[in-house]
Amino acid sequence: MGTVGGQQGGGDALGAEAMRRLRQRSVCDIEPGLTDAEFDAIEREFGFHFADDHRAFLAAGLPVNSRPEPPAPGVIRAHPQPWPDWRHADRDELRGLLDWPAEGVLFDVENNGFWYEQWGPRPTDSASAVAAAKRMLTRVPVLAPVYGHRYLPAERGAVGHPVMSVWQTDIIFYGVDLADYIDREFGHGGSDDEPRVTVEFWRDLL
């Protein structure tokens, strides 16, 4: 997957710019950023790696839910505490956020007839289809939560991926990159540039 949109080597700058824009919005409290030791512990515990820009964003400051804030217009109430608090949150809650994209796909497999054609023929009964989809989903790239049901691909070395809004298999772009996403989510417009997504599987649901 890796670098997108000419952002090579720019993970630190892009993440820092996204945090700068968030601080300007005054929509949440921001604690000191995660340390290298905290990142290492989180990635070991949950089995994924933050993208470089996402990591730089959280190193520059950790957004937390301690300040009451009006819900952003497109954030569904399924996430009443939208900022993933990697330092303080219940670990099962964080696992639930990480599982959310795949669980949404499984819901649509079971209830709405969804099937990804590259998985081959769909099993005839629903239970077998869900079991097969669950096996296949262990192979797709992990998405890491940014805010509510907004996600970035989780891969060390990845920079500049668009932020995706993930609701079951209804997935749309929600920012050309992480900095643009902050503008778009919190009411300051957004870029008109065409997003580029190269992350396997999820790109085919857009």
Q: Report helical residue fraction.
A: 25-40%
Distance between the termini: 16 Å
Order of helices and strands: HEHHEHHEEEEH
Which term fits the overall shape?
Answer: globular
Order of strands across the main sheet:
3-4-5-6
Rg, please? Answer: 17 Å
Unreliably modeled segments: none
> Main β-sheet: number of strands, strand sense, barrel status?
4 strands, antiparallel
Protein name: SMI1/KNR4 family protein
Organism: Actinoplanes sichuanensis
How does this model look, in words?
This protein is of the alpha+beta class and 206 residues long. The protein has one domain (11-67, 90-205). It is built from six helices and six strands. The protein has helices at residues 11-25, 36-46, 52-60, 91-111, 126-137, 178-185, and strands at residues 29-31, 62-64, 143-147, 150-153, 164-167, 170-173. The strands form two sheets. It has a four-stranded antiparallel beta sheet with strand order 3-4-5-6, covered by helices on one side. Helix 1 packs across helix 3 and helix 4 (91-111) crosses helix 5. The longest helix has 21 residues, at 91-111. The chain is globular.
